[in-house]
Amino acid sequence: SVGLGVMLLWQGESTFASFGVFFLQMGWGDLGAFGEPSKETPNLDQMAAEGMLFLDFYTANPLCSPSRAALLTGRLPVRNGFYTTNAHARNAYTPQDIVGGIPDSELLLPELLKKAGYINKIVGKWHLGHRPQFHPLKHGFDEWFGSPNCHFGPFDNRALPNIPVYRDWEMIGRYYEDFKIDLKTGEANLTQLYLQEALDFISKQQASQQPFFLYWATDATHAPVYASKHFLGTSQRGLYGDAVREIDDSVGKILQHLRKLGISENTFVFFTSDNGAALISAPKQGGSNGRFLCGKQTTFEGGMREPAIAWWPGQIPAGTVSHQLGNVMDLFTTSLSLAGLQPPSDRQIDGVDLLPAILQGKLIDRPIFYYRGNEMMAVRVGLYKAHYWTWSNSWEEYSKGVDFCPGQNVSGVTTHTQEEHTNLPLLFHLGRDPGEKYPLSFISEEYQRVMERISAVVHQHKVTMVPGEPQLNVCDKAVMNWSPPGCEKLGKCLTPPKSDPKKCFWPH
Amino acid sequence: SVGLGVMLLWQGESTFASFGVFFLQMGWGDLGAFGEPSKETPNLDQMAAEGMLFLDFYTANPLCSPSRAALLTGRLPVRNGFYTTNAHARNAYTPQDIVGGIPDSELLLPELLKKAGYINKIVGKWHLGHRPQFHPLKHGFDEWFGSPNCHFGPFDNRALPNIPVYRDWEMIGRYYEDFKIDLKTGEANLTQLYLQEALDFISKQQASQQPFFLYWATDATHAPVYASKHFLGTSQRGLYGDAVREIDDSVGKILQHLRKLGISENTFVFFTSDNGAALISAPKQGGSNGRFLCGKQTTFEGGMREPAIAWWPGQIPAGTVSHQLGNVMDLFTTSLSLAGLQPPSDRQIDGVDLLPAILQGKLIDRPIFYYRGNEMMAVRVGLYKAHYWTWSNSWEEYSKGVDFCPGQNVSGVTTHTQEEHTNLPLLFHLGRDPGEKYPLSFISEEYQRVMERISAVVHQHKVTMVPGEPQLNVCDKAVMNWSPPGCEKLGKCLTPPKSDPKKCFWPH
Fold first, then answer.
1. In this structure, how many other beta carbons lie within 10 angstroms of the beta carbon of residue A212?
2. For the complex shown, is ipTM > 0.95?
């Protein structure tokens, strides 16, 4: 549930010329431009100063895999299948033993871009399923350098295999074996490898005048946090800050590379994150959501509001700020628009085309839905957010020290039981109260007026909702990364245990 | 305990030419440049973009009067007398019935600047005592437009008189009577009056080539919050945001005025605040301290870390950021340095000269002390902060709904009893943990090493501390603003009750 990413589309000689996005797990409050007190992201701050800062940008889910599936399909996880029905309102993702993944029926952004002549590369974490049918090169990508799952480990290759790293169709090694991560010192040069992959790919596409889409989804800054030697110990914020600085530096180098190649005005770049900072890992391995409530795993602002920057020199006026309500799913629709393509008409697409907001400063009226698994927990309309359900995590987990809201406790809001408020939602004004601390009075005129509008939006959303087949229900140790393609060449094939499919257990 | 202010010094033809400061009650997180999510302070953000942003700047006390006394004397309140010994570690200020005020023995910045030929003006709230001997024109100011106390009210002129507004030596009216504040609509044009006073003063000094010091200390954004008609309803943040926008606009107009008159490169301007945002008044009347813990009245970061911007075109490189540990008391010493004066040598001055940090980017090693009344609660040395005492407020107050840390609760840190940690202070690393949520382990090597250094700093501070005579111990209804000078001309003299001096009660 992390990942930094960049998408880059370069369209050679055409009019709009290019497009790009970074995608990673950093919190709203991790960037200097968003008020991080150490202000150690000069390159991202510069990117914002040269482009457009989005202050009201969201992910589609407070967890990694569903958020990434939403980015690439333009659809809510409850539609594209990246959710579970094993229990009510549970966060689910794609660990090694997950049986499901991205269904063939889903149309991914690179599949569509291919039709317009784009070459598509993913660098970093895929996270949409690791079984053969879910391979990114079967879903529109032309190249891949990275891994299908989180870089957890080291594992013993008996109970759990170490996560493979792929180049295109085949694995070329495993984390902790061939790709070192020193958990003691925090040293790993993975971000440098990912950076080089990005630079090389961009150079190659520029040389061949080939439009491209680069999805740069590094493992950093997900726990276990790492940085390369050059960055270790350089941050006021400890190891997590070192990792942020390396990402920041990489973004700067990629933008500089585009400039050097003369294609910066042909390349649209977007930087954002897949979920809020994981406060559960703080302070050593987790970032900051600024003043927003709670973090990753929750549908409070800290779990789903993301840092976001659009950059396109010559097209986006420098130093602008947008209050457009945005969502990672919009990058699907916006990219298609940039490529001159229409979004698929045979299915519900949740992303909207942000180009009017980005290029003309318009504000598009659209809601933001906050889901946890199969439940719409909250909705934002304008500056108002209504919670239909509240939950942080269970008392049982919380009493064991699992805390998604450390140091924060808003009575009746950060609840440890799943509290339903459908009949009388908790309503917050995010302008006056971005920290979600002061619900509006149920008897106020403002509450009545606003809920009337929100109720209509929610009704419309619910009556037209057709959930996809849930992909994250079944787990089986036999499907883990025992013998990925290419393992024979490396002598790294392992023997899977007997198949034993079970309902996955999702604790929160 | 509020107030926006500007100090401006203009030195005509001399080399450094000029100097200035704004001083007000806004929180660290209230400015766009510091990550406020609505980003509604374009002028202050621009001031930062043209000047230097201080990220580690503090006030000398989490309450208004002591903080202002510290700014003007360069000394901690425990030295200049702005504290109480009525109870341990209590916040005290200068309400209408306070008997004390700034002692004649204290040397104020304008008194010293006068000797170098400066004309000094205070616009706004004085707050260093309202009895005749404490009048600002007796302490170095040449002009005054504003009031001696907070704009609380309306009062009945029987139990409590309405607060007078002075022009120079005499009152010219009272709040709520001659200077309207509509508590229902939030409308008041006071900030516009203060703005005009500033612009006129600057014009006059420029015309006569007279160096000046302007201390612009508006009542806004202290509760009761107000804004003028033009700004009402213009903010995403409600009335508080309207007030912030008006302050922001005023700062922009003052800077623009300096430019227009051709003296911007001769005028040093500093913007900061007297204490953290008053979360007790949130969300309707209180601001934001970003991700910092708690607010005004406390010695957590939210109570004492302040937004701060230095501006001096042609001298301060544009868009720079400083991690210099700074304090409002430094503005005393820095101003003297700019004016070519030495600080007094017959007393302890706590402020340091920030010019090496501002003009040459140097970092001066100096501690920050966090006091509440007569107690040093905490100290910051480098990135580490040690709490020797913790307290938010009493259980009794808290149970009545008085909450300085709404929605926040860090076990063992935001305590509701005065907890002493002198023998084993709670230690935080403010880089890794700016929110003061994760005390370092007492048995870690880091704790031992750091506390050794901090202990020496604290020992030195305590053994050389000579407290001043406490000024905030005695209250008497007879000393209130019944008959300020000039009241006869206006027919606004009231009859004081019989003198009945009592120990002031300071609940927190």
1. 29
2. no
